[in-house]
Each structure stands twice: as structure tokens, then as C-alpha cells.
Amino acid sequence: MSDSESGGGPKQVDDPAYHSENHTAAQTCGWTKNALRGEGKCYKYIFYGIESHRCMQMTPVVKCNERCVFCWRDHQGHAYELGDVEWDDPEAVADASVELQTKLLSGFGGNDQVPREVFEEAMEPRHVAISLDGEPTLYPYLPELIEEFHDRDITTFLVSNGTNPDVLAECDPTQLYVSVDAADRKTFDSTVKAVEDSAWDNLIETLDVLAEKDDTRTVIRTTLVKGHNMHHPEWYAAMCDRADADFVEMKAYMHVGHSRGRLDRDSMPEHEEVRAFTEELGEYLPDHDVLKEVEPSRVAMLARDQETWVPKLEKGSEFWERDPVVEY
Q1: Cβ neighbours of residue 112 under 8 Å, at least 6 residues apart?
Q2: Which sign, positive or negative, has the C-alpha torsion 216, 218, 223, 227?
């Protein structure tokens, strides 16, 4: 049940690019559309086994406490003030996420390029990427939201900037990504532009939180921006080592959205540059001697083992089979 009656209170998401219910926002990923039409899948399928057509992309809060230069979002529209938010409970957020996703994809049911079986599978999401916008740890019931998704047999990938380590310590998603977009305080200040002075220290504390995770798979992810943070791979490696991360992802900044007003196109590294930087970093992480890459996405990953798929998400797993009846 929502904290306010349906339609009551101020609307918390005003970005026309998103479909929203109060402070919950969703948007159809381009890879989801591609997968429905049989035109390819997201790199997360290749790395981790996520079926793109059954993946939801959402956030429980669009507010953010960082102003990253590479972010495609509009910083002007993401005021950090949270006092006016009327928070929905986790059940309402999960309901809204599924409803928004199925509404967004409903038009594909009449698309001749989309097989009927694939469309019907898409109407039963199996995975959620809590990563669309904002900083998810600002939602006060995030650990409970993750549990709610898991109770519905929906796997969770959570992406955080690591500024709220106490919240992340209570979160146990299927896979937890923490953005490490600088390996030193000076670069952090110029690239991430955090709202709070404690952000860097909190990020370091978050690395220790990751190291304590036993059941949650952990990922250090870095958005590489030429001329900003592509230096000192050994320092990044030290942070990954401190976090005892299962995986390390290096992904190129993409010159899209509002970031084009802050950076020029030359700030976007080529895939060869991403791979080279990842290989340099790997020299300082001898236990992560497996390198995987997806050139169209300009992303490379370091892992300890060749098998990187989430076990229950392997191709042919019963997890991906459709339920005869789905009732939430």
C-alpha cells in the first residue's frame, strides 16, 4: 500500500522520458527492444546471463547526490532535496515496476518482428536492474525492496555510487555494482562532483562493505573518460583488491544525453583503449586473470574464473521458463 492514496501528493518524477508512479521510474532499455526483435542482447547477457527481453530497468528514486561529468542525465532536474518525497512501500514500488514495464512493452505484442512466445516471456519480467537514474540508496526501504523482488522470483542487479555504506551493508541483491569512477580524491572531486564532502570517505568505507559480502556477487565498475580518469590503473586495482570484488568492469563513457554539454566527443574512448586500460589494471590483479569483452558496448571485464554467469541464470535454466499463472 502506498504511503499516500493513488493520485495523491506531488508527483516525484517529472522527466517526460520516464514512465513513473510517484517516485518509481522505469524506462525501456534499447537492448530490451533489440532482444524482442531478435537483434541482439545486452552485454550483461554475455557476461552474466541476463535475458534482455525479460529485464526491467527502474529506480526507486531519481534524486542523486553526485553530479558526474559523464552522466547523461540532466543535473538541473535532479535536485537532491528529499523532504517532499512521499515514500511508497517496497510492495508498491515492485508493483509499479512490473506494471510500468509491461505497459511500456505492450505495443510489441502486435509487432510482426516479435515472436509471440518472446513477447509473452517479456510480459513476465525475471530480472530487474535497479540502475535507471538517481542513487537507489536514497530510497529508505531499499533492502526490503530487494527482498520483495526476490520473493517474486525476480533477480536483482543493484548499481550504487557507494556514498551510503550503511545502507549497502543491509542490501543483498543478486549482484551489487559499486561505481568507482576515480582512484584518487583529486580526480574524484573533478569527475564525480559529489554534493556531500563525505562522499569519497564513504566510498572507501563501501569497499570494506563489499569485502564482507559472502552471498552477494560484487562488481567494481568504472566509466572511463579520456582526459579525466584513465590513469593510475594500479590505484584502481588497489581499490578492487580492498573490495575483494568478484568482477571488475571498465566501460567507455558514451557521448550521449546531457553529458554532451559537459564533455566533447573526444572524451569517449575507443574499445581498444578500454581493453588496453583493463589489461593494465589486470596486471595488478593476478587473481582476476580472465578478461571478457563486448566491443559494441565498449566494455571489458576482469574475473577470477571463466564462468561468470549467475548460476541460476545459465542458458536453459528452469528459472527462465514461464509460469503458467503469475499472481502477485
Answers
A1: none
A2: positive
What pLDDT score does 12 carry? 55
Residue 173 has which C-alpha cell? 541483491
CA distances from 123 to 46, 53, 251 (A): 22, 9, 30
Grouping H, G, I as helix, E, B as strand and the rest as coil, residue 325 is coil
Continuous segment of H or E residues that includes residue 324: none
Rounded CA separation 240/247 (Å): 9
* Residue ranges in the chain modelled with pLDDT below 70: 1-17, 75-83, 315-316, 322-328
Q: Determine the Cα–Cα distance for residues 304 and 312; give it in Å rounded to an integer.
A: 19
C-alpha cell belonging to residue 286: 593476478
Q: Grid coordinates in use for 65?
A: 547526490
Phi and psi at residue 178, in whole multiples of 5°? -125, 130
Cell readout for 272 is: 581498444
User: So what's the pLDDT on residue 14?
Assistant: 57
Instruction: Answer whether 193's CB lies under 8 Å from 187's CB.
Output: no
> What b/e sequence results for 187-219 when a residue is b if at least 16 CB atoms lie within 10 Å of its CB, and e otherwise?
bbeebbebeeeebbebbebbbebbeebeebbbb
State the pTM of this model. Answer: 0.89
Give the length of the chain.
Answer: 328
Cα 178 vs. chain centroid, distance in angstroms? 9
Contacts of 134 (CB under 8 A, 6+ apart): 59, 61, 62, 63, 64, 78
Q: 578492487: which residue's cell? A: 240
pLDDT digits (tens, 9 = 90+) for 251-307: 999 998 888 889 899 999 999 999 999 999 999 999 999 999 999 999 999 999 999
**Type of residue numbered 296:** P
